[in-house]
């Protein structure tokens, strides 16, 4: 499978980076091709709802990092969303990219894809990631993408927290399990 990892964390050595590394290690070990798009390293603009993409043949008015991401998205069999929890949702960097899917909704909804969520948060309440997870599931439902699973790492404020947890191992197993 062609796996596209969309990394929505600004931290290169943070908690979700370790989940991402272990997941890709597992997926690569069973022969998948992995491409990673680091949202925070790209020049990207938030959707302004101008509807240029709907009213012209020229797509989004912004010709930015999405020009790199769009063909990767089109070719991906599986899209992996990697995000820290920011105020009970995905990072604004990740949300910005997903909003930009709007310019290609029809194509994205008609292409058969699978999806995975890798997320981490600091608090330990069992419900902390519920809204983010539900949001992810609704996105999958809308796009007609099949959810292949998630790692929801609760109580992981720091890199040290997650290094001392079982979540990296679970992320590797999830990567290995993809078919
Ligand atoms: C702006 C911001 C908002 C956050 N909001 C939450 C939150 O609502 N709940 C929570 O448990 N942790 C929250 N956190 C903590 C992060 O989710 C947590 O430290 C995560 O492991 C960071 O992932 P990263 O190292 O991959 O960037 C927040 C952190 C930041 C910087």
From TrEMBL:
Entry annotated with the keyword Cell membrane: no
SUPFAM superfamilies listed in its UniProt record: Flavoproteins (SSF52218)
Pfam families for the chain: FMN_red
UniProt superkingdom: Bacteria
GO molecular function, one term: oxidoreductase activity
UniProt keyword annotations, A-Z: Flavoprotein, FMN
Domain NADPH-dependent FMN reductase-like, first and last residues per copy: 1-150
InterPro entries: Flavoprotein-like_sf, FMN_Rdtase-like_dom, ISF_SsuE-like
Name listed for the protein in its UniProt record: NADPH-dependent FMN reductase
Protein species of origin: Faecalicatena orotica
Taxonomy of the source species: Bacteria, Bacillati, Bacillota, Clostridia, Lachnospirales
């Amino acid at each position: 499978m062609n796996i596209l990892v969309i990394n929505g964390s600004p931290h290169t050595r943070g908690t979700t980076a370790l989940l991402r590394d272990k997941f890709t290690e597992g997926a690569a070990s069973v022969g998948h091709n992995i491409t990673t798009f680091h949202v925070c390293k790209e020049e990207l603009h938030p959707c302004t709802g101008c509807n240029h993409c709907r009213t012209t043949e020229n797509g989004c008015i912004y010709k930015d990092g999405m020009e790199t991401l769009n063909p990767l998205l089109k070719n991906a069999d599986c899209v992996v969303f990697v995000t820290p929890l920011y105020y009970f949702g995905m990072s604004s960097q990740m949300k910005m990219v997903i909003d930009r899917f709007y310019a290609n909704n029809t194509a994205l909804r008609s292409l058969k894809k699978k999806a995975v969520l890798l997320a981490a948060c600091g608090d330990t309440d069992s419900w902390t990631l519920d809204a983010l997870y539900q949001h992810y599931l609704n996105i999958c439902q809308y796009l007609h993408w099949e959810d292949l699973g998630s790692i929801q790492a609760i109580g992981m404020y720091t890199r040290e927290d997650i290094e001392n947890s079982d979540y990296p191992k679970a992320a590797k197993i999830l990567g290995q399990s993809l078919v």
